[in-house]
Write a structure and sequence with these properties.
The chain is mainly alpha-helical and 72 residues long. It has one domain. The chain is built from three helices and no strands.
Length: 72
């Protein structure tokens, strides 16, 4: 996936627009690290990380879905 496509995916998941390009680059680097560490493909690692990020933004949007011990 190209970084601009990844940035668009992040925007669709709720990433602040001004952070999308920077986060896309960081996410791509981290996916490469995870792929090497865990014996996954880069795409598998990227899908995993996107899922985690989507869950985090969903929790920010609806804090009642977060377990009480993890609420701020």
């Amino acid at each position: 996936m190209e970084l601009d496509q990844l940035a668009q995916a992040l925007a669709a998941l709720g990433c602040p627009p001004e952070k999308c390009a920077e986060m896309a680059a960081q996410l791509d680097r981290r996916a490469g690290q995870l792929a090497a560490q865990k014996g996954r493909t880069h795409d598998e690692a990227l899908v995993h990380l996107l899922g985690l990020m989507a869950g985090g933004w969903a929790a920010q949007a609806n804090p009642s879905t977060v377990a009480p011990e993890f609420r701020a």
